[in-house]
Write a structure and sequence with these properties.
- There is one protein chain.
- By secondary structure, this protein is mainly α.
- Helix content is about 75%, strand content about 0%.
- The protein has one domain.
- Helix 2 runs antiparallel to helix 8.
- It starts with a helix and ends in an 8-residue tail after the last helix.
- The model has no long low-confidence stretch (mean pLDDT about 85).
Amino acid sequence: MNRKIWIADGMLLLTALIWGGGFVFMKNSLDSFPPGAIIAMRYAIGSVLAALIFRKHLKGLGRGDLLRGGVVGLLLSAAYIVQTIGLDHTTAGRNAFLTTVYVLIVPIAGWLLFGQRLRKATLAAAALMLTGIGLLSLDGESGGLNIGDLLTLAAGTLFAAHIIAVDHCHKKTNVYALIVLQFAAASVCALAYTLIFERGMTLSFTTSSVGGLLYLSVVSTTIAMSLQNIGQSMAPAAHASILLSLESVFGALFSFLLLGERMTPQCLLGFAVIFAALMVNQLLGHEPGENE
């Protein structure tokens, strides 16, 4: 493995670690802000910071760049809003794990939409995924598969759409410019959502809530998503997905350590099967050298 891949690995692993911690801060932020407002504020701050950092790459942007940034930002905001609403009805650990179904959905969507080869390993991973979700849904102690879990699965689908859109848009728009454009578009979309659907809801600005919002804005958004975009441009897609999917492990770990969320043996088994599905799909669902 060359030096470039090692650097990319470090970026992607750090991204997964930061995102895993973000589930805890997001869960706590819901006590102070409605979901749309959280997304609007975090991406507004993130877009300003990213614009300052990557300002040299924003020159000469055309209408096509703005359109691509708008599409990617719309998908991003929709994914996070649905995920955040789901988080308000489930645990941070379950939300973290179920969100990573995007790793499985991406190759299936590639087969359906673009005629890309769907491998037997991917089908096996799908069967494992269904088994894992079944273990969660039949876990009587945690209440079964609830509306929050279903919304989280929907968010995972939207994240898959975002990943596919980014992959296509990177080919025509500079990666650094796309970071800024999608952040700005996500903020605008989330603001529209909160003005329409969350009008009159309370915003509680306390030391704790502001601190959590800053973590989400500066660390989870500006730093982590920039590392993700840059890291993915330096490493094979399958390799990158494996490391990024570790956000679910870190999310569950932080939820257990910091929020005191209890995990039953059946929940742990379900999480293990879901993670195994992700690994089977990524390790065996690609031929050597593919996407490199």
